[in-house]
Structure formats: structure tokens, C-alpha cells
Specification:
The chain is mainly α and 237 residues long. It has helices at residues 10-16, 20-59, 61-75, 105-113, 132-139, 148-153, 166-169, 200-213, 216-232, and strands spanning 80-86, 92-98, 157-159, 185-187. Pfam families: Bac_transf.
């Protein structure tokens, strides 16, 4: 038989913590509890980040090698494309992708940006810089595979807001900068909800909703829904 648990009401709590020293103790206990919760969740996320990234890189190496050869043979250019991206609390890190664009893609970008309405995020369905193999890589998000190395290093995690470019962050307001308060991810909530078909403001709203509600169960749900979203290829360009 379970005995009844007496829960103090609000008045009793106010009386119990009316003393300033007791109030300070209560604040310290609450903060310690939050740190413990966050430490536990960080440990769980970091463990599955390392395990999942290691398994994907090791088990998929024949496919990754084949993709690298196809990219190299297509135009003789480099296999990987490196960018500077903005990570946790504004820290810059090297961000690799399988190259999906022409070698002169960066030189052409400024002209294309002038034709793009919202420069806080730049995605074009009919981007002329994308190569034939690059279009296929992007459809199934295979160009993102090298970022598993960033996950292993702890610069990224499996689930979190996608890392923006420095010039995109320079256009952020205070509201949008909240995206940088957690480690960026390989997949995120808007990537399973429409991917690049969602405008920047929609992506931001979904990212901030994720940050507010973030927990292990939500991360698992996003990971499980990512695979069918990738295979459908909807909104990938």
C-alpha cells in the first residue's frame, strides 16, 4: 500500500523559503538539478553521436569511396568542399561536404545572391552551379556525409539546428541568434518537415521550438523521421 504524499501548497513554500539564506539555497538546488539534467542528456547525446558517426563512416566506406571517385572523375576537381560555418555560441569551424558544385561556384555566388530575396539563407532549386552528380548527391543528402567527422570531433551533433554561414549570421537579429545557443546538428526538425522548401522564418520558428522542447525522445523521433525524408528527397536541392 502506497502512503499518501503530502505536497506543500504555495503559502507553505513561501513561508518555508522566506529566509534569504533558504531562498539562496533553493536557487542553488534548482540550478544544480538543471546542470545534472543537462549533463546527463549531454552524456547520452555525445555517446550516441560517437557511436553512430563511427558506425556510419566505417560500414559505409565502400559507398563513400565510390562517391569520391565519381566526383573526382566528373570534372577533375577536389572531392571535398570546405566552408567556415558558425557553431555553438558563434565559434567558427571547418565544415566539409562532398563537392556538389562547379569548381568556380563561389565566384558565381555573389551574382546569384542579388537575385535571391532572403539572403539570410541561400538555396535555389535551379542553381546553375550544381553538377550532374551533385544534384543526385543533394537529393539524398549524401553530400552531407563528411560532416560525420565534425560530429566525431564534437563540433556538431546528430540533431540540432543546421550551422549557418558567417555572412548569414551577420544578418541575424537577436531573435535568430538564439539558434547559436546549442551545438549545430546534422539533421533538424525542419529538414523532416519540408527541408529547403521552408522559408527562413519558418526554419527559425521550428529551430527555436526545438530548442525550447529539446529532449532525448524528441531527438530520437527526428532521427527516425530523417531516413524516410532523405529517401523521399522532397525539398532537397
Amino acid at each position: 500500500m502506497i502512503s499518501k504524499i503530502n505536497t506543500p501548497n504555495l503559502r507553505e513554500l513561501e513561508q518555508r523559503f522566506s529566509n534569504p539564506a533558504r531562498r539562496r539555497l533553493m536557487v542553488l538546488l534548482v540550478r544544480a538539478n538543471l546542470r545534472l539534467k543537462h549533463s546527463f542528456e549531454f552524456g547520452v547525446r555525445r555517446t550516441w553521436d560517437v557511436l553512430a558517426a563511427s558506425l556510419a563512416l566505417v560500414l559505409g566506406w565502400p559507398l563513400w569511396l565510390l562517391l569520391a571517385l565519381c566526383i573526382k572523375l566528373s570534372d577533375g576537381g577536389p572531392i571535398l568542399y570546405w566552408q567556415q560555418r558558425v557553431g555553438y555560441r558563434g565559434q567558427l569551424f571547418a565544415f566539409p561536404k562532398f563537392r556538389s558544385m562547379r569548381i568556380d561556384a563561389d565566384q558565381c555566388k555573389s551574382r546569384l545572391l542579388n537575385q535571391h530575396a532572403d539572403q539570410r539563407t541561400f538555396k535555389s532549386r535551379n542553381d546553375p552551379r550544381i553538377t550532374r552528380i551533385g544534384r543526385w548527391l543533394r537529393r539524398f543528402s549524401l553530400d552531407e556525409v563528411p560532416q560525420l567527422w565534425c560530429v566525431l570531433k564534437g563540433e556538431m551533433t546528430l540533431v540540432g539546428p543546421r550551422p549557418p554561414l558567417p555572412n548569414e549570421v551577420s544578418l541575424y537579429g537577436l531573435h535568430a541568434r538564439q539558434r547559436l545557443e546549442i551545438t549545430p546538428g546534422l539533421t533538424c526538425i525542419w529538414q523532416i518537415s519540408g527541408r529547403s522548401n521552408i522559408a527562413f522564418d519558418g526554419q527559425l520558428a521550428l529551430d527555436l521550438k526545438y530548442i525550447r522542447e529539446r529532449n532525448i525522445a524528441l531527438d530520437l523521433r527526428i532521427l527516425l523521421l530523417t531516413l524516410p525524408a532523405v529517401f523521399r528527397g522532397h525539398g532537397a536541392y
